[in-house]
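Run log // design_07
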């Protein structure tokens, strides 16, 4: 099962986060919402660019529903005047 980390815990226990990410992706939460995934860099992608590696296939089954991916409806988009 993929582990979730509070942002503060991920920062203070970064080495542990990386060790666990070597086995399966780790989800980082900010204010209880997923904001990042830490995953190991596959050894066979050494010759790939980082962007190519990030385009790899990830298994996101078992994660929370896709609703957390939607924009927070409470936040309004405003046009800025320069």
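design_07 sequence
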């Amino acid at each position: 099962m993929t582990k979730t980390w509070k942002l503060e815990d991920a920062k203070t226990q970064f080495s542990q986060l990386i060790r666990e990410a070597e086995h399966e992706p780790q989800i980082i939460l900010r204010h209880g919402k997923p904001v990042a995934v830490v995953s190991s860099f596959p050894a066979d992608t050494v010759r790939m660019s980082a962007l190519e590696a990030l385009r790899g296939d990830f298994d996101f089954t078992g994660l929370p529903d896709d609703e957390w991916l939607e924009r927070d409806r409470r936040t309004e988009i405003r046009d800025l005047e320069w």
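Residues 27 and 69 are 13 Å apart (CA to CA).
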